[in-house]
Amino acid sequence: MSEPVREAKGASLARWLPLAGWLAHYDRHSLGRDLLAAVIVSVMLVPQALAYALLAGLPAQVGLYASMLPLVLYALFGTSSTLAVGPVAIISLMTASAIAGMSGTDGAALSTPEMLAAALLLAFLSGAMLIAMGLLRLGVLVNFISHPVISGFMTASGILIIASQLGPITGLSLSGGNLIAMGESLSSGAQELHWPTLAIGLGCLTWLILARRHLKHGLMALRMSESAAGMLCKTTPIIAVIVSSLLAWGLSGPLEQGQLVQGEQLEQGKSGMALVGAVPGGLPDLSLPSLVSHDWSGLLISALLISVVGFVESLALAQTLAAQRRQRIDPDKELIALGVSNMGAGVSGGMPISGGLSRSVVNFDAGAATPLAGAFTAIGILLASLWLTDWLAWLPRATLAAIIIVATTSLIDIAAIKRTFRYSKGDGAALMITLAITLAQGVESGIIVGIAVSLGLYLKRTSQPHSALVGRVPGSEHFRNVERHEVETDPELAILRIDESLYFANARYLEDTVLALMAERPSLKHLVLACQAVNLIDASALESLEVINERLSAAGVKLHLSEVKGPVMDRLKCSELPANLGGDIYLSTFDAWQALSIHGSHCGQSCARDGISQTAAVG
Amino acid sequence: MSEPVREAKGASLARWLPLAGWLAHYDRHSLGRDLLAAVIVSVMLVPQALAYALLAGLPAQVGLYASMLPLVLYALFGTSSTLAVGPVAIISLMTASAIAGMSGTDGAALSTPEMLAAALLLAFLSGAMLIAMGLLRLGVLVNFISHPVISGFMTASGILIIASQLGPITGLSLSGGNLIAMGESLSSGAQELHWPTLAIGLGCLTWLILARRHLKHGLMALRMSESAAGMLCKTTPIIAVIVSSLLAWGLSGPLEQGQLVQGEQLEQGKSGMALVGAVPGGLPDLSLPSLVSHDWSGLLISALLISVVGFVESLALAQTLAAQRRQRIDPDKELIALGVSNMGAGVSGGMPISGGLSRSVVNFDAGAATPLAGAFTAIGILLASLWLTDWLAWLPRATLAAIIIVATTSLIDIAAIKRTFRYSKGDGAALMITLAITLAQGVESGIIVGIAVSLGLYLKRTSQPHSALVGRVPGSEHFRNVERHEVETDPELAILRIDESLYFANARYLEDTVLALMAERPSLKHLVLACQAVNLIDASALESLEVINERLSAAGVKLHLSEVKGPVMDRLKCSELPANLGGDIYLSTFDAWQALSIHGSHCGQSCARDGISQTAAVG
């Protein structure tokens, strides 16, 4: 008798801590797969973490900190066995934009510690919002961002990210959250290309692109197995990191080398090349972000947008990967897992995080079996930040920019834009507006306008509903559009098929349509609204139907309804419409036709004459 | 040949200046009707105009100024022959709320000239927005405010207006744009009822209520004709005005009377009773509102809300009145007419205006034949402000409060609230949320939240679309819900009828529904989506269908579509879905049944055996 109880307890624990569900079955085989995946992902994540922290305008170590505790927390709470969380490009860009929108206590731009505090707060708030959404089971809310809007937003963000990296890669000074601001920052003051930076940047870029395209086949030609060649290809960024760091170290003099050893801030080598600079080694401090010293209410909208975008991106990624292994993702649990991870980032010196595309795919390909792979990755990052920080200081920023650019090209999806336009001009317009606003105004305006546009587009589509006058297909019980088919009609009877639910946005349009019809057809005695496509009649539409009924009655025309669906009819019965209706409510349009049309009664008689009962014809 | 040209020119002029359409046919009969209506409306409008200006927190004469030029402009541009525009209760309340939200140059509350300037600017901006909406033909946008939201907003505004008048009628000091602020202002500091004020206020209130209920029948009992008695009843407020002004004058000493004659500001009589005070006589100055000295951008949202609410109110009123005379209102021309009138108010010392309910009904009942009645009313108001201002100074504010209270009770419509709740809990909730937020937070938050709630409600309703597994009604071509009817089914075939358009908000829901169905029915080989109620498939839903198709194919299930509507099919043909679809697209669900079901093929065989061709059975 104790067994079911234990099971139930286990199930309830697993409900909030998915770890409890799979840890019992964990074996040496899974451990091996998770460890291998963790090693590969760690090697890939170190430069990405540094790069995305710089993209967010924060010190490089913040990226490392955001890749420790959050990964462990996701391993505990996440439902995806392969999603690899951490700093990602779009969320870093949004973080930069949110922080840039703030001003310090004296109204000036934020100092670095202030920016850091804001990033922590942003991660913490956005985590709290994700958890709240999860507890309220609001995972479905992401559905309100349409695919074209996401597509336009991703492509525009990719362009913005790549544009923002043109500064570090060329040595030019470039800043701003949108293309216009970047253009202005570039044109202000005389700027000169910094040739050593450009050389390193373009060198890395060329290496990364060539390696991505050809290295795997090259290695396979050297008789390496396909999977080993694939894994090795993922380490190409780390090779760029090592080679360019050595170059930067070689180009600098012993003076700078000595300064760096003493932990001083050194952001430029002797050559004038921008470096990552001194990265504090070791573990981050744990502390709650200070809500008092900051105007945190100003970060609320940004935190909300970061939550939503991060969640949409993670969920889509996790579901795609899960489908390939026939696993299932629970959106509400994912909300909580991402929320806890972000709060973890907020208390451990990190920045807002999300599921990263490239590293999740690598994690998946490397065979990660459980979320423990993420926890092992966190250990890898910890080891790197204990032992490698002295060397990471010499890493040129141009190298990181090249890594970001190559990783970000996958966000830009021109084929999706073309496909959307070919399918529907309206959806294409929503996509292009989102894309244009994101480029011109930045990520926050872009996503807000995008959501508004897709809602507006849908409302516009439904606010002028398609309707058609229908007539009877001769000899059948079917009714078709009089403009498209040869059908029987009756000058005293109009049957209007409404091809949309009736609600406030189109209620008045229906009034106009019916009144125009009445004006055109002075001989009209009966109007039937065929409601087979009407899934809802809201209170506003009910009032419009009452108005239509009154006006038609005043003009001596009876209003009838046909094919009203069950749930709609249940609702109508609670109103006074059925009692006040000038005409009747028919189960089928054919019933209405038989009762009201001259053909209908004629057919009834002729059918009777032909020896077929009228009932059979109706049935 | 010149005739058609002249006609076309006349038509084009009438397009923008409806006056050009009817002025040619104007005759002595119409003139007589318009003059009579103008006299009655003027008598009614003078106290209302003063009252609504005070409600908006502005000097009393602003109400008179807003009843001159705007009325003339509406006569030129309006399409309603009976709509009487001018200061109205809700718009005045919204104006007060907008101005209260501003702060002066030194951060303190606005001075009276600053408030006046803000009101002018508000009228001007809101007029400009209305004209812009009219030129862009956005009259249809008002449909996006649902009836329950309007109903809740009107009732709450009525309650707020009546509550705000409890101050002037009792002599207590009461202020604020919502019930909470009013309650706080009332409880701050020791307050005492002012008995003479209360006596005048309650006296007027009693007179107005009794007169409204019984005077008409009383006069008719005295053998007065019904129409004359009706007209006379509309003058009851002016009787309250005259009697209470005389009382206030009598109660004051010669000193105050002398001060007032010299045009000094005198807002209290000797008795301590609040009076209207010195009203400058004559015409307002014409001048453009100053855009420079003010933070006018802060008024933009308020101006937009005032435009929308004023337009919704006016349009509904004008259409109701027009329907009774079988006339038609053009929403886009009304936008322009109201816009020009509001801009007129903005340049002639007025305040934002709209169509007023009670005075439009009086105008209609008095037989106003053309918009000229409004222009004559403006002349009436002009005469009043030339000759009556010395006397209006003695008018107690309590009298005006009583007039506002009685006029505002018509806004409160408890029956509509009950009706809405009975019909639909969702609509009822939208109404109550709008009502509660308006009462607790004020008019601007109320209308914004109301619009958001009604959109959200609609999206929620459509985001979890009703769908039903259907089976064949034996012996027929009809398919019905398997849970509600006795129908034929097939373990290898599922027919899912989708009762909603497919778009981004419900695309994922469809995925979940189909995947859950697939998990429940391991024997499934064919899934048919019956699309007769699908009026739209947007780009997001298309992607979901592609995902569904892929997942079903992977599991060995074929996806078919049936009864796809013409416009939806045209769209699908532009995508790759038809080519990639695992199954086929059938014209009717019955076709799909015949092709895919074991019953279908069996029936085909048995029908053939029975000597009836299969084609006939399909047709």
Number of strands of chain A: 8
- Which geometry of chain A do the CA atoms define? elongated
State the share of residues found in helices of chain A, binned by percent.
Answer: 55-70%
Strand share of the residues of chain A?
5-15%
Report how far the terminal alpha carbons of chain A are from each other.
58 Å
Mean pLDDT across residues of chain A = 82
Most extensive chain-chain interface: A-B, 56 and 55 residues
Number of H- or I-type helical stretches of chain A: 29
Q: How many individual domains of chain A?
A: 2
Q: Regions of chain A with pLDDT < 50 over 5+ consecutive residues?
A: 1-10, 261-266, 602-619
Largest β-sheet summary of chain A: 6 strands, mixed
Indicate the radius of gyration of chain A in whole angstroms.
Answer: 32 Å
Strand order of the largest sheet of chain A: 4-3-5-6-7-8
Oligomeric state of shown chains: homodimer
| Estimated structural class of chain A | mainly alpha
Domain STAS (chains A, B): 483-573
Pfam families (chains A, B): STAS, Sulfate_transp
Transmembrane segments (chains A, B): 35-54, 115-136, 148-173, 193-210, 231-251, 296-318, 368-388, 394-417, 429-459
Membrane topology (chains A, B): Multi-pass membrane protein
Q: Would you kindly provide a written description of the structure presented here, covering whatever features stand out?
A:
2 copies of one chain form a homodimer. Chain A is mainly α and 619 residues long. Chain A folds into 2 domains: 451 residues, no CATH class; 152 residues, 2-Layer Sandwich (Transcription Regulator spoIIAA), CATH 3.30.750. Chain A is 63% helix and 5% strand. In chain A, the strands form 2 sheets. A 6-stranded mixed beta sheet of chain A has the order 4-3-5-6-7-8. In chain A, strands 1-2 form a two-stranded antiparallel sheet. In chain A, strand 6, helix 24 and strand 7 form a beta-alpha-beta unit. In chain A, helix 8 packs antiparallel against helix 20. Chains A and B meet through helix 20, helix 21, helix 22, helix 23 and helix 24 of A and helix 20, helix 21, helix 22, helix 23 and helix 24 of B.
